[in-house]
């Protein structure tokens, strides 16, 4: 039964792989610079590495928002987020993200169980939704200008530019997949951290993994499965749908999104910044999809090419609709779990049927 | 770096060899016309053989480059443009070879006073072709200077038009009979075609350059 509860997290990981990871590689595959098979292989391997190296920081941020302490509750929160993203992104086509959906679902759990929602954490999360695409756009615009002037200034042969871009896309894609695993594993498995079914220590050949690392490894494999089985369609759509991108611009998009994911996901970077007495970034799970869209828009502004304002509108709509839908699904789902299946959705919260049972039973 | 660019360097070298063959072939064309007008039949035959070799080499290189670009899926966003460019610049040397062969086959009798006119026309065409080759090289390596070369192609093409017009007027003002007048004009048109082919490629190159800069 314990393993059944994890399936919603695995489904969430699969959705993340099929969409956010696909968005990361979409521009490279869409511009035909990388074959899907190469992108899927590199993406899968590095997303798993990133997930296992996983950012406990981003998971802690989600934990502060809502300390889900019962497996059935965690199951429904993950399922609500996965369903809302699946419906909105895969069926309706809004560029929503698991990041937004999981926040909505956790707030739904808080409301249902009567636990307080940490407003400071919520504000931090909401502000990064705005900040991450803007930051990706600014980084992309700067990198694009730098790359363009380097190509013309250094008089690099067209074929060499092609070779450099191809290798760069592979390296940036690997970095992006690693950062995605690092940052977004919290979205997939964060709600299960307190209720992990794994033992404290698991031996995997020469390695020893903690309970959380095993959880993150499982989540990473689910993301990889999403990349391998369903991401091709999304990649081709992103690569050709939002704006006509040159391979060089595609490289800049992947790199910018990867940098932003890393910036908000790496505890090492945060420690390094603090050691240099620089302001640290909050470790917050962010949306790779929206970082990619932000980066593409940043390049479009620099190139003075037409910006599809609908893309901007869709992001804003996504910020509103995804968490709300996940919240509603979570509320309904938790109600059903507690009152129909008589399962505890939070520690110390006894199902109604159990409360009415005669004493001594 | 050698490992990373080993394959592309070989292809770059092939593109350079193709452009060299076209450039040298066009210079041989100009020398061939000069030899025919001098007249120096022995040298003319050598030029004829040489331009045939250059044209053949250019064809072979173009096919190899096209195959490699497709087989190795290189420059996916500019592949079509580059293939169009290479096929069309190949037409310039094809035209030069065809014209020189027509001189060899039909042996037009060119009056001595018209000789300099034909030679000037051939020189203008060759100049247009040389600047076109420079423009194509720049397209691959330094796109910012492509327009500098393209405007020179257009300049020599306009020069060739003026020279051809003057030559045709002189031909039809001479008392050599209509059949010979038409024959002489026919060769004037053929020599003029070299600069026209160069202009066609320059037109394409202008568009490809704009596409690469936006």
Short account of what is shown:
Chain A has one domain (2-346). Chain A contains 13 helices and 2 strands.
Summarize the structure in words.
The complex is a heterodimer of chains A (361) and B (214). Chain A is mainly alpha-helical. Chain A has one domain (2-346). Chain A contains 13 helices and 2 strands. Chain A has helices at 2-30, 36-52, 56-65, 71-92, 98-113, 119-153, 158-189, 211-241, 247-263, 267-275, 288-303, 309-339, 352-356, and strands spanning 201-204, 207-210. Chain A has a two-stranded antiparallel ribbon with strand order 1-2. The two termini of chain A are 23 Å apart. Residues 357-361 of chain A have low confidence and may be disordered. Chain B has 214 residues and is mostly helical. Chain B has one domain: Methane Monooxygenase Hydroxylase, Chain G, domain 1. Chain B is elongated, with a radius of gyration of 19 Å. The model of chain B has no long low-confidence stretch (mean pLDDT 93). The chains are: A mainly alpha (361), B mainly alpha (214). The A-B interface holds A 31-33, 152, 155-160, 162-164, 167, 246-247, 303, 305 and B 4-5, 8, 11-12, 15, 73-78, 82, 139-144, 214.
Architecture blueprint of SSEs:
The complex is a heterodimer of chains A (361) and B (214).
Chain A: H1 2-30, H2 36-52, H3 56-65, H4 71-92, H5 98-113, H6 119-153, H7 158-189, E1 201-204, E2 207-210, H8 211-241, H9 247-263, H10 267-275, H11 288-303, H12 309-339, H13 352-356
Antiparallel strand pairs in A: 1-2
Helix pairs in contact in A: 1-2, 1-4, 1-7, 1-8, 1-9, 2-7, 2-8, 3-7, 4-5, 4-12, 5-12, 6-9, 6-11, 7-8, 7-9, 9-11
Chain B: H1 2-37, H2 41-71, H3 79-106, H4 115-141, H5 146-173, H6 178-213
Helix pairs in contact in B: 1-2, 1-3, 1-4, 2-3, 3-6, 4-5, 4-6, 5-6
């Amino acid at each position: 039964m314990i393993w059944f509860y994890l399936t919603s997290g695995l489904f969430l990981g699969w959705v993340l792989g099929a969409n956010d990871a696909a968005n990361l590689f979409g521009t490279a595959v869409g511009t035909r610079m990388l074959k899907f098979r190469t992108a899927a292989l590199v993406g899968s391997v590095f997303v798993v590495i990133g997930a296992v190296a996983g950012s406990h920081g981003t998971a802690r941020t989600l934990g502060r928002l809502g300390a889900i302490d019962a497996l059935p509750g965690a199951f429904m929160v993950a399922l609500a987020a996965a369903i809302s993203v699946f419906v909105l992104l895969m069926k309706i086509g809004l560029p929503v993200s698991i990041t937004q959906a999981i926040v909505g679902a956790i707030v739904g759990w808080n409301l249902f169980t009567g636990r307080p929602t940490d407003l400071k954490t919520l504000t931090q999360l909401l502000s990064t939704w705005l900040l991450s695409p803007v930051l990706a756009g600014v980084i992309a615009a700067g990198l694009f200008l730098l790359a363009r002037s380097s190509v013309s200034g250094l008089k690099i042969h067209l074929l060499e530019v092609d070779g450099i871009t191809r290798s760069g896309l592979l390296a940036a894609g690997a970095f992006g997949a690693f950062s995605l695993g690092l940052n977004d594993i919290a979205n997939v498995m964060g709600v299960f951290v307190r209720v992990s079914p794994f033992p404290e220590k698991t031996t995997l050949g020469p390695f020893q993994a903690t309970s959380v690392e095993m959880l993150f490894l499982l989540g990473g494999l689910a993301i990889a499965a999403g990349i391998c089985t369903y991401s091709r369609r999304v990649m081709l759509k992103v690569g050709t749908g939002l704006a006509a991108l040159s391979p060089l611009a595609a490289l800049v998009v992947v790199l910018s999104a990867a940098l932003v994911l890393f910036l908000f996901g790496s505890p090492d970077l945060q420690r390094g910044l603090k050691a240099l007495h620089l302001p640290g970034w909050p470790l917050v799970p962010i949306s790779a999809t929206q970082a990619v869209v932000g980066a593409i828009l940043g390049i479009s502004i620099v190139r003075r090419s037409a910006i599809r304002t609908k893309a901007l509108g869709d992001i804003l709509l996504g910020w509103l609709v995804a968490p709300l839908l996940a919240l509603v699904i979570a509320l309904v789902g938790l109600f059903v779990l507690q009152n129909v299946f008589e399962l505890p959705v939070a520690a110390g919260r006894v199902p109604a049927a159990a409360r009415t049972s005669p004493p001594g039973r | 770096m050698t490992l990373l660019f080993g394959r592309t360097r070989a292809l770059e070298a092939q593109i350079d060899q193709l452009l060299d063959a076209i450039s040298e072939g066009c210079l041989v064309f100009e020398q061939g016309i000069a030899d025919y007008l001098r007249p120096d039949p022995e040298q003319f035959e050598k030029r004829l053989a040489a331009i045939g070799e250059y044209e053949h080499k250019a064809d072979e290189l173009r096919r190899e480059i096209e195959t490699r670009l497709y087989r190795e899926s290189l420059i996916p966003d500019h592949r079509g443009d580059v293939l169009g460019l290479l096929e069309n610049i190949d037409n310039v040397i094809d035209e030069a070879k065809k014209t020189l062969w027509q001189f060899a086959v039909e042996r037009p009798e060119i009056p001595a006073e018209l000789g300099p006119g034909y030679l000037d026309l051939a020189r203008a065409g060759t100049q247009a072709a040389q600047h076109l080759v420079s423009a194509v090289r720049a397209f691959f390596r330094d796109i910012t200077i492509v327009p500098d070369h393209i405007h020179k192609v257009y300049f020599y093409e306009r020069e060739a038009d003026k020279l051809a017009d003057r030559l045709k007027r002189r031909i039809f003002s001479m008392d050599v009979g209509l059949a010979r007048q038409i024959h002489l004009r026919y060769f004037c048109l053929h020599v003029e075609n070299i600069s026209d082919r160069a202009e066609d490629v320059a037109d394409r190159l202008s568009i490809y350059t704009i596409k690469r800069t936006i």
